[in-house]
């Protein structure tokens, strides 16, 4: 049986949602070689925008989010490697030619959204900044640089203070890691109320986090295993279908892998709190798109579960799915292609005395809020 070709933005059909659920949906339109049937975002007084890595999964999601949110741009420049240059993309009823990324790509650009890998960001990010461009970078290249803000708009918008569009002064802004964004969208509203002193996170991360090729391999392996064949293992060193394993990031000398340490270090920077204790275990699970995380929180002051549920119900970008009677809680499928992060299993930690601990379960779309949406929201703050 021949495997059907997957697009870079492979979509899953969202199942029936519980009546109490109100996840904000993205439009179903995506960049393609055919007409892009969405409203125009072209505005003469908007900024000129460049997308670096436009042919990748997150690059395509940038285009989708810009259209979904009607982000106003004066002009749009699509940039990629030499291999992808000269391709024609039809987007919002206009034809664009993908241009090769060079040192001259950022003339007359106001905002550049980068998602092309750390080495590309390290080389071309400073070049763009020197030309007065505000760069929002999705790689890990600049996240831990003390001089560069690491931003989740709902969490720490104050980190961008002083960065102005069309001021003649360029700037770099880092997009956090996807697992950090999804976790802190839920943990931060509770942290503001009762101050988190320790956080234990276990992640269940989808194939989308490893890119389109990993998504394709997961589907291929699933077919192969069901047909009694040996699974193709090119992206990962072991079978992914019907299996789970430690995240494929390199393991460091302390026994943690790089993905886990990103959660530790980025949380401390975003919360501006070097004393908060964070530990993480990151697992790759055979889910196509959207990450799930189990989060245990220990607080400085008491916080009961009813108050926590109320806080989360009113938090921006968060939706609560917490129906104990029906055993209905967040799942990756529910949040796939959605903007909101879903939170459920909100319960008191019985291992701690009093109301000093909570357990929550969080799900969020890794490509959307975990990457492209967060970056576009940062760009919106500049308008």
UniProtKB/TrEMBL annotation:
SMART domains: Semialdhyde_dh. It comes from the Eukaryota. Keywords: Amino-acid biosynthesis, Diaminopimelate biosynthesis, Lysine biosynthesis, Methionine biosynthesis, NADP, Oxidoreductase, Threonine biosynthesis. One of its GO terms (molecular function) is NADP binding. Pathway: Amino-acid biosynthesis; L-methionine biosynthesis via de novo pathway; L-homoserine from L-aspartate: step 2/3; Amino-acid biosynthesis; L-threonine biosynthesis; L-threonine from L-aspartate: step 2/5. It catalyses: L-aspartate 4-semialdehyde + phosphate + NADP(+) = 4-phospho-L-aspartate + NADPH + H(+). The keyword Plastid does not apply. Signal peptide: none annotated. SUPFAM superfamilies: Glyceraldehyde-3-phosphate dehydrogenase-like, C-terminal domain (SSF55347), NAD(P)-binding Rossmann-fold domains (SSF51735). Pfam families: Semialdhyde_dh (PF01118), Semialdhyde_dhC (PF02774). One of its GO terms (biological process) is diaminopimelate biosynthetic process. Residues 48-163 form the Semialdehyde dehydrogenase NAD-binding domain. Its EC number is 1.2.1.11. InterPro entries: Asp_semialdehyde_DH (IPR012080), Asp_semialdehyde_DH_beta (IPR005986), NAD(P)-bd_dom_sf (IPR036291), Semialdehyde_DH_NAD-bd (IPR000534), Semialdhyde_DH_dimer_dom (IPR012280). Gene3D superfamilies: Dihydrodipicolinate Reductase, domain 2, NAD(P)-binding Rossmann-like Domain. The active site is at 178 (acyl-thioester intermediate), 291 (proton acceptor). CDD domains: ASADH_C_bac_euk_like, VcASADH2_like_N. It is an enzyme of class 1 (oxidoreductase). Homodimer. Belongs to the aspartate-semialdehyde dehydrogenase family. HAMAP family: ASADH. This is aspartate-semialdehyde dehydrogenase. It comes from Handroanthus impetiginosus.
